[in-house]
Amino acid sequence: MDEIFGIPAPLLFGQLLLGLINGAFYALLSLGLAVIFGMLNVINFSHGAQFMLGAFVAWMLLEWLGIGYWWALLLAPVIVGAFGILLERTMIARLYKLDHLYGLLLTFGLGLIIEGLARNEFGSSGLPYRIPPELTGAWDLGFMFMPVYRGWVVVVAVVMCLATWLVIEKTKIGSYLRAATENPALVQAFGVNVPRMMTLTYGAGVALAAFAGVLAAPIYSVNPQMGSNLIIIVFAVVVIGGMGSILGSVVTGFGLGIVEGLTKVWYPEASSTVIFVVMAIVLLARPAGLFGRS
Amino acid sequence: MAAPASGGAFEGIASENEQMWGFTRPQLIALGLMLVGIVIAPSVLYPIFLMKVLCFALFACAFNLLIGYVGLLSFGHAAYFGMGGYLAGYAAKSWGLTPEACIIVGGLAGMVLGWVIGSLAIRRQGIYFAMITLAMAQMVYFFCVQAPFTGGEDGIQAIPRGNLFGVIDLRSDMTMYWLVAAVFVIGFLFIHRVINSPFGQVMTAIRENEPRATSLGYRTDDYKLMAFVISAALSGVAGATKSLVFGIATLTDVFWTMSGEVVLMSLVGGLGTLFGPVAGAAIIVSMQNYLAEFGAWVTVIQGVIFVLCVLAFRRGVVGEIGRILKVRL
After folding, report:
1. Of A30, A152, A294, B239, most Cβ neighbours within 10 A?
2. Whether A109 and B304 lie within 8 Å, measured CB to CB
3. How far apart are CA B40 and CA B27, in angstroms?
4. How far is CA A217 from the centre of its chain?
C-alpha cells in the first residue's frame, strides 16, 4: 500500500483529496450557475465575485463583529443573497426581454465593480481566516492524514448539492421552478408569480455561491481575485456538463476536480489546463455536453 | 446578439443607396474626419499614446466584426491579441525579422489559434459560445505562463522595432506612428470590405436569422468560422503592432481582463457600427491613461461603464450619434 502505479500513496491520496475539494467548489458554483441559468436565462458572470464576497463577509463578520464561522455560514449567504436580490430587481430584471448576452455583459460589469471595490478596500494580498476550533486537527486514516476541515468541506458540499437537488426535484416549489424553466408564460397563466420566482432563484443561486465562499475562506486566503480565477474554470465545467441537469453538474464538478488532482500527480505541468483540454474533447465528441440536451 | 443599432432605429435614413466604395455618404465624411484626425493628432498628442489607441482600435474593430456583424460574442479575444504580440516579439528579438514580417507572423499566429479555438467554439451557440471562447483563452493564458518562449511572468522585453523593409529605421516614435497608422487604416478598410462583400451579407443574414440562412443553403458554420478566423488574425496583427510599439509582450495581453476590455471598447463605441470600436478604443484608452493614478478604481469605473452601457446606452456613442443624425455610421 506504499506505492500505487509507482506513485507514493500519500502523494496520490493527498492530491485526490485536493481534487475532491476543488471539485466541491466546482460543483457548488456550477450548480448555482445552472439553477440561475435555467430560470433567468442569464449566465451569472458575477458568480465568482459573489463567491469572493461570501468569503469577505465571513471575514468581516469575524474581524469587525466577532461573529464566528458557524454563524457566518448562515449569515453570509443571507447577506450576499439579499444583495443579489437587490441587483436582480434593480438591474438584471430589465434585461430579460433582450438578448441573453446583455445579461452576461451586465453581470460581468457587476463582477468588475465588486472585485475592484474589494481590492480598493482590502488590497490584493490575501487575508487569513482561521479554521474554527471544532474543525482543526487531522484524522489518521492509516494510509494518509486527513485534515478535519477538508473532510468537512467535501461532506458539506455533497450534502448541500443533494439538498438543492431534492428541493428542485421533490418539492412543490421545485416543481414550480422546473415548470417555469420549461414555459414561464404558461406557469404565469396558472397564477404563479413568475417574476418573484426569478428574483428568489437568483437570490438562492447567489447565496449558494456565498456559502461556497465561506467554506473556502479557511482553505484559500480571502482575496479579491479568488472568485474570478475560479469562475472561468467553472464555466468550462458547465460547458462540459451541460446546464440541463442538476445532478449532472454536481457529478461533473466533482469528477473534474478529481481529474485535475490526478493530473497534478502524473503530469503537473498540465494541471492548470487539463479541464480546458477535457472541454475541447467533449466539444468534439459530444457538443451538447455530457448531460446536456441540445 | 442582434446589433442594437439594427431594426427600427434607422427608418428615416435618406440616401442609403448613394454609395461609394461601399461607404454611404455620412460614412465617407466620417472616414475623412478620421483620416484627418490620424494625420493631425500626432502634432497635438503624444505619438505613443496615439499608437496605443490605434492598436486597440484595430483590435476592437476586429472583435466588432464578430459581435456586430455575425452576432457572436467572443469573450476570449485576448488570446489572439496576446499571442500575436508574443510571436511578433519573439520573431523580432530572436529571429531578427523585419517589423513588417513580425506583424505578419503575429497575424498568422492569431489566424491559426483562431481557427483551432473557433472550430471548437462554433459547435455551441450564444452564451455557451462566450463561455467556450473565454475558457479556451484562459487555457492559452496558462500555456503562456509556462511556455519557455514567452518569458513567463517577465514577458518578452526589449523587443527591437527594427528597420521597416530592412531600410527605414523605426526607432523614432513619429516614424513608428506612420507605420501603426498605416496598419490600422489597412485593417479598417479590410474589415469594411469584408462587411460589404457578399460574404459579409451572408454573415449579417446569420446574425439576423441563422436557421433561415441555413435553409437558404448556406453552410453557416463555415461562414462563422471564416469570420472568426479573420477577426482573430486581425487581433493578432493588432497585438503584434502593439508589442513592437512598446517593445514588450506580457501576460497582461493574454489575460481575460484584456478580453473584457475589448468588449467594453466595442460596447461603449457602439456594437455593429463601423466607427464605434474606434471611438470606444479612444475613450477607454484615454480613460485608462488619465485615470491611471487612481489604481484599482479603474476596474470599478470600467465595471460601472459596462453596467451603464448595458442598462441605458446600448447603442454606444457612435450608435447614438447615428440615431440623432439619422444616419448609419
Report:
1. B239
2. yes
3. 20
4. 13
A254 interface with B at CB cutoff 8 Å: no
Number of H helices, E strands in chain A: 11, 4
- DSSP 8-state class, residue A224: T
How far apart are the C-alpha atoms of B228 and B231, rounded to whole Å? 5
Which tens digit of pLDDT belongs to each residue from A55-103? 999 999 998 998 888 999 999 999 999 999 999 999 998 888 888 888 9
Could you tell me the three cell numbers for B88?
511578433
Kindly state whether A273 is in contact with chain B, defined as any CB-CB distance less than 8 angstroms: yes
Phi, psi of A7 (to 5 degrees): -105, 130
What are the structural domains, with CATH classification, of chain B?
Answer: 17-325 (1.10.3470)
Q: Map out the domains of chain A as residue ranges.
A: 17-226
What does the block give as the cell for B259?
Answer: 478580453
pTM for the model stands at 0.89
Contact B311 A94 (CB under 8 A): yes
Please, which pLDDT band fits residue B18 given cuts at 50, 70 and 90? low
Q: How many angstroms separate the CA atoms of A15 and A261, rounded?
A: 5
Taking an 8 Å cut-off on Cβ atoms, the answer to whether A108 and B120 are in contact is: no
Q: Measured between beta carbons, which residues in chain B are less than 8 angstroms from residue A91?
A: 307, 311
Rounded CA Rg of chain A: 19
Q: Which of A94, A109, A236 sits opposite B306 (nearest CB)?
A: A109
Which residue of chain B is at minimal alpha-carbon distance from A43?
A: B127
| Nearest to A38, CA basis, from A258, A289, A245 | A245
* Cell reading at B33: 474626419
Are the C-beta atoms of B187 and B194 separated by less than 8 Å?
no
Report whether B230 contacts B194 (CB < 8 A).
yes
A227-286 per-position pLDDT tens digit: 988 999 999 998 888 877 788 888 999 999 999 998 988 888 888 889 999 998 988 888
Q: How far is CA A163 from CA A150, A170, B130, in A?
A: 20, 10, 30
Give just the sign of the alpha carbon dihedral B93, B97, B102, B105.
negative
CB proximity A119 to B under 8 Å = yes
Q: How far is A191 from chain B (nearest CA, A)?
A: 29
Could A105 and B314 be called an inter-chain contact, meaning their C-beta atoms sit closer than 8 Å?
no
Put simply, whether A279 touches B (Cβ < 8 Å) is: yes
Band of pLDDT at residue B167, cut at 50, 70 and 90:
confident
